[in-house]
Structure to design on (301 residues):
């Protein structure tokens, strides 16, 4: 098992095999930026600088949510949109936020994969791993939107105050805010994210192609708010982080890379179309055939 500490300015020194989608320097940079709910300003600054360097459109709203757009869909088409939240629960990152320092990262090679963590406190892979994945997808695609929300961990406060008009030309939303690599949400806090035809047509095949075999009913995350407020079909996939919300949290680089590759594949399948699944507020469980279907097929997985 090989271990290497990374210096503050040393983000791309470890040559990882089979990393094809995520840029390693970008991954290390994102994971090294300290962030905590209500104190996300250093991540906001990084995202705005990344957007400026790449020439993307977008900006930041009064709440601190960051929006970016790359390219233009074909006439009559809609943007794919990826999302992640930029806050973490790791309060021990606060001294790094206040001092302007980056988090010292440790990388270990375990069973042929690279585990990244911070010594003595949680890395905040939930959801900085998702940020790195979403950014990588935008960088790779010719046309894509992305939104990065603040304060998800304290009640989706960022997404509850988002600029809804920004989603008028978005066709669907893909989030990366679930643990592990083979996990996805079929519902969040009782809100079904997609319907049965969408799952059978586009998502079921991801098991064979990418090993995505575990769908769960999860607590809230930002795509729950997006589903309610936009009626767009949403998805939420594993971002390769483990032991989230604990001092032992870590990410696996190759699993982040696989998540990004899966996102790009899925966008190639979905294209520039709009996928709508109307949300019925507080509808009884018995009247929602999709809820009954998914709770049945995923109950034992």
């Amino acid at each position: 098992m090989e271990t290497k500490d990374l210096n503050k300015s040393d983000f791309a020194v470890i040559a990882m095999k089979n990393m094809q989608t995520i840029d390693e320097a970008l991954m290390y940079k994102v994971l090294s930026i300290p962030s905590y709910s209500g104190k996300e300003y250093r991540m906001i600054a990084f995202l705005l600088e990344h957007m400026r360097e790449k020439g993307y459109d977008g900006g930041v709203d009064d709440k601190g949510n960051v929006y970016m757009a790359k390219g233009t869909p074909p006439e009559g088409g809609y943007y794919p949109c990826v999302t992640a939240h930029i806050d973490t629960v790791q309060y021990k990152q606060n001294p790094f936020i206040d001092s302007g320092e980056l988090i010292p990262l440790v990388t270990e090679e375990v069973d042929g994969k690279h585990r990244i963590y911070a010594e003595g406190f949680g890395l905040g892979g939930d959801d900085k791993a998702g940020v790195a994945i979403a950014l990588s997808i935008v960088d790779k695609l010719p046309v894509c939107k992305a939104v990065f929300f603040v304060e998800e961990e304290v009640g989706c406060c960022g997404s509850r105050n988002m600029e809804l008009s920004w989603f008028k030309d978005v066709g669907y939303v893909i989030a990366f805010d679930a643990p592990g690599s083979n996990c996805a949400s079929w519902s969040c806090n009782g809100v079904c994210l997609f319907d049965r035809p969408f799952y059978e047509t586009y998502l079921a095949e991801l098991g064979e192609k990418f090993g995505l075999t575990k769908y769960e009913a999860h607590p809230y995350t930002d795509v729950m708010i997006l589903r309610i407020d936009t009626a767009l079909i949403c998805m939420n996939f594993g971002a390769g982080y483990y032991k989230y919300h604990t001092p032992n949290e870590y990410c696996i680089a190759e699993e982040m890379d696989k998540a990004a590759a899966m996102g790009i594949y899925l966008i190639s399948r979905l294209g520039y179309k709009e996928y709508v699944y109307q949300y019925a507020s507080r509808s009884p469980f018995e009247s929602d055939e999709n809820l009954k279907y998914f709770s049945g097929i995923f109950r034992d997985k």
In short: Confidence is low (pLDDT under 50) at residues 1-13. The CA atoms of residues 15 and 284 lie 52 Å apart. The chain is about 30% helix and 20% strand. The first helix runs from residue 24 to 32.
